[in-house]
Sequence to fold (228 residues):
Amino acid sequence: MSTPRFSVTCTRKELIAENIYEVAFAKPEGFSFTAGQFVLFDVPLLDNPEDIQPRAYSIGSAPKDDELVFAIKSVPNGRMTLFLENKMQKGTQLSLQGALGNFLLDRTTPKDYVFLCTATGIAPFRSYLRSYLAEETDRKIDLFFGLLRENELFWEDELKEFQKQYQHFNYYICINRFVQDEAMSAISDFSNKQIYLCGSPLMTKAVKEIAISQWHVPKADVHMEGFI
Fold:
């Protein structure tokens, strides 16, 4: 069965941190997804619009939201970056495939959630939180957000509001510090935890190994989505 294709229209583009854009599109009729999934944008080459390649981005909004929101990091000479910075504006249309992916929360067990991410890897976790935080009051949810520099921080106002509103949620900003070190400082016992990882492949691979070998989390309770 082929993946559905949709045309989406940009509703806003904003530089929200150093080299990080928040880009939103009106959610097209018939598009559906589950928190944690991603889409493949058909991105044309800036100098040759006929040259189109897919680029994957996790959805940062919730299925109930009217917009599809993405956090996109600016990469020197990157295909999406060049299009984003030179062509993308309100009203710009792009084609996408989706939704795709199986980075979904396991809500069938009562175990707590531990989310560890770097940079734009926070996108699926924002979708989780906007989708389920109000419902999952019987489990503790901790988010560890890793960044190299403070000026790369974004979406913290919403995290603060979530932490203020929901006693079962806490977040930790890890500036130039490994997210796994922050997690070990904040959590003494991982025996009742599910681990979710999203970000650079180096981070996700390293933390997966630590979670299994040092935190003694069963392999089935460690879920990861690594950037390509």
Summary: The CA atoms of residues 43 and 158 lie 30 Å apart. The mean pLDDT is 94. Helices lie at 79-86, 123-132, 156-165, 179-186, 201-213. The chain has two domains: 5-100, 112-226.
